[in-house]
Amino acid sequence: MNDLLYTQGQDNLAGLVDEAWICPKDDILTAPVLASATSLLTTSSPIVNKTGKKFSRMYFTDETGKVETKSVGERDGKAQETMLTGRHPAIGTPLADFIRQAQNTPSVIIYRLARNGKLYLLGFTQLDIASTALSLAIPAYFEQGDSSTGEKRSDQNGALLGWKYTSQHGPVEYAGTVPLSPGA
Q1: Among residues 83, 95, 85, 90, which one has the least CA distance to residue 65?
Q2: pLDDT, tens digit (0-9, with 9 covering 90-100), for 98-116
Q3: pLDDT tens digit sequence for 147-178
Q4: Which ranges of 31-168 does DSSP label H, i.e. alpha helix?
Q5: Does residue 78 sit in helix, strand or coil?
Q6: Which residues pair with 21 in a beta bridge?
Q7: Which of 43, 85, 145, 174 is the most exposed place for a label (fewest CB within 10 A)?
């Protein structure tokens, strides 16, 4: 087991930075690999999408995006359940179309932490603890798209979007880049 230390005085800002990225798992050609079998950090090898496919951007209102991971399961069968949620600030056809396309699509999500700018993945899983290979066998699933116009002029208008990822471990730190251009 690794040491778990913390250096006092370093930045530790909460939340996610401005947007996240999503891609259907079936649009991914090549997964990144872990730097070592004992760490959930990838090498700088990028995610490669299939021809014509890319990650889509999802804007979240500042200070509404968060990731929560909790332990689930019985003794000798523990796992990690991670929820990513964020509020999109506008009701309309683009939001309705996005929810319709996302709600039944197994996906990979990339998000960035505010505390250090590092990227993390939901939807890639290390199935074999002795291997550096990551699998798409356990993707992230759309969990909520609760929307409202609000009632008073000062109410929030938009939708709370959320995805759930349940695996034997939490999010994987991603050292690659977000593939925002279609694969070749």
Answers
A1: 85
A2: 999 999 999 999 999 998 9
A3: 888 888 888 888 999 999 999 999 999 999 99
A4: 93-102
A5: coil
A6: 57, 110
A7: 43
Neighbours of 21 (CB within 10 A): 19
| Rounded Cα gap, residues 141 and 121, in angstroms | 13
- CB distance 143 to 122 below 8 Å: no
CA atoms within 13 A on the CB side of 144: 15
Q: Give the position of tokens 């939901």.
A: 122
For residues 101 and 14, give the distance between their C-alpha atoms in angstroms, rounded to a whole number: 30
Q: Do the Cβ atoms of 45 and 126 come closer than 8 Å?
A: no
The amino acid that residue 23 corresponds to is C
The CA distance from 69 to 17, in Å, is 18
Euclidean distance between the first and the last CA atom of the chain, given in angstroms as a whole number: 41
What amino acid occupies position 157? N
The Cα 184–Cα 180 span in angstroms is 12
Residue type (1 letter), 40: L
Whole-number Å distance between alpha carbons of 176 and 21: 13
Name 8's Cβ contacts closer than 8 Å, sequence gap at least 6. Answer: none
Q: How far is CA 79 from CA 4, 70, 76, 128, 166, in A?
A: 19, 8, 9, 14, 7
